[in-house]
Specification:
heterodimer, A: 255 residues, mainly alpha, globular, B: 244 residues, disordered N terminus
């Protein structure tokens, strides 16, 4: 090398972007994420182990079938969990509880879907309505399969207590835990849709929780027994719960 | 010097490997299902917890010892089975992407460790009970009752801690992160404690009471639950405190 050879300008080494500030890894950059999800079992497996694969597939043309399969799975799982919830009272509740739980969940989702779409648009997201519907279906499916996981525990408690307040609290706790995981999945999906803020989504989560909680009162009794399928009196869920807590039976003694 | 390859066939000596917490070997076992190994773990679990249960019930009556020898392993097995689905689902959701069978196997191994420890303690417990005065209403106000009760608490706590410490090591090895291992262990532990407490409530009595008959299950086994009882007891204590 002589003195006339041009010296290349010194370029500082490229540093990786700081964690937390970087954009999420694009969906489908791993070939495994591009594998088609052929049936509902594969969708459940993907939802638990490869959520990015499901998120990628929900953005592909023809995702409607996948979403329909996910909704059907959620419906089936909520019916099964409903039967377990119905064993607390037995009798007509064995069919009434699954119908009410499944219907309540689906109606809550249908009521909340338009507001979810509006909130995602307001947050600057590019997600289409079918993608938003797909993420909501993912939330429902994850929530209900987790409820199936909790079902053996719920069944054991429903056989060993007569307290409606206790069983209601237990089911609500399981439902809340399952919903939180479902919301986490949905938020992961929206993080890939160029949303500028998650504030709108957080507001929607609160709305969804309130709607679902009110649904338990609007369709009561889900756990206890009643002469009519639907309630004859309109109430807010907080008032209804307060009444249930007042009617606590006695407790067995340990030895 | 090369590490010897993992033993494919199961052998009772493997229990020592479990107790030592050799993560490399244990993670290989949890990943490769072997019915023979599973049966071995199950046998240790049933024998260890059963022997400890027998020592626990013996103070009341030999028949109570037999009942508790059956009930103690039953609680562990029912807790494992009852939570198997949710534990298998929670692991990947919390960052540990292991198959369902592997999570089930890991939990069974942690209970096997606890049962082996309890089984080893059972002669000590039996000796303690043998030295205690016969169970009577008066015995409950004597130091012997408190000593026996506290010894049970100490032994079961120690066995539980060791089983979970080994499980944590295994989860850390499988997940490659202490944070993930902690999250998964915490979720599993919460679920197992929640269900295990209720199953213990249903399957009571264990130590037994001199004023009540020896029974496999109380007539009120399915009335009320553990947590309602804890709440009601707390209320009674608070009421007594305020009335004083």
């Amino acid at each position: 090398m002589n003195e006339n050879t041009p010296v290349p300008p010194r370029i500082p080494p490229q540093l990786p972007p700081a964690a937390g500030l970087s954009e999420p890894r694009p969906l489908g950059d791993d070939p495994a994420e591009r594998a088609v999800i052929p049936h509902a079992f594969a969708a459940i497996e993907a939802l638990l182990r490869q959520p990015r694969r499901l998120l990628f597939q929900l953005r592909q043309p023809g995702a409607g079938n996948l979403i329909a399969g996910m909704l059907l799975t959620a419906l089936l799982c909520s019916l099964i969990y409903g039967v377990v919830a119905g064993t607390f009272s037995g009798g007509t509740q064995l069919w009434a509880a699954p119908v009410k739980i499944a219907a309540g969940l689906m109606i809550s989702a249908a009521i909340c879907l338009p507001s979810l779409y509006i909130f995602t648009c307001l947050s600057g997201s590019q997600a289409r309505l079918i993608e938003v519907g797909g993420l909501l279906a993912g939330l429902l499916m994850l929530m209900t399969i987790l409820l199936i996981g909790f079902a053996p525990v719920a069944w054991i408690f429903s056989q060993s207590t007569e307290s409606l307040a206790w069983m209601g609290t237990l089911h609500l706790t399981f439902w809340l835990v399952a919903t939180l995981f479902g919301v986490r999945f949905m938020k992961a999906g929206f993080s890939h849709a160029n949303a500028k803020s998650q504030a709108g989504l957080n507001v929607w989560v609160v709305i969804f929780l309130l709607v679902a909680l009110q649904m338990t009162t609007a369709l009561r009794p889900v756990l206890g027994q009643s002469d009519t399928f639907f309630p004859v009196e309109k109430k807010f869920f907080l008032g209804h719960w307060a009444e249930c807590l007042k009617a606590q039976p006695g407790v067995a003694k340990a030895d | 010097m090369q590490t010897p390859p993992a033993i494919k066939e199961s052998h009772p000596a493997e229990i020592a490997t479990l107790l030592r917490g050799e993560s490399e070997a244990i993670s290989t076992w949890s990943g490769q299902w072997s019915t023979q190994r599973f049966v071995l773990h199950l046998a240790v679990l049933v024998l260890g917890a059963g022997a400890y249960g027998a020592a626990m019930g013996w103070w009341r009556d030999p028949q109570q010892a037999l009942y508790v020898a059956i009930k103690f392993p039953l609680i562990i097995l029912l807790t494992t089975l009852g939570n198997a689905l949710i534990n298998g689902m929670l692991a990947p959701l919390l960052g540990l992407n292991i198959p369902f069978r592997q999570s089930f196997s890991a939990i069974v191994m942690s209970f096997t460790i606890a049962a082996a420890i309890l089984g080893a303690f059972s002669p000590l417990m039996a000796f303690l009970v043998w030295n205690a005065p016969p169970m009577s209403s008066q015995a409950f106000s004597m130091p012997a009752y408190n000593v026996i009760k506290l010894t049970h608490v100490a032994m079961i706590t120690f066995a539980g801690i060791m089983g979970n410490a080994r499980l944590w090591q295994l989860l850390g090895h499988l997940g490659g992160s202490r944070a993930v291992a902690f999250r998964v262990l915490f979720a599993w532990l919460a679920g197992n404690l929640f269900l295990g407490s209720q199953l213990s409530w249903i399957l009571r009595p264990f130590i037994g009471s001199p004023d009540l008959p020896v029974e496999f299950l109380r007539a009120t086994a399915l009335h009320g639950n553990f947590y309602e009882n804890v709440l009601s007891t707390s209320q009674q204590i608070l009421n007594a405190f305020w009335n004083d």
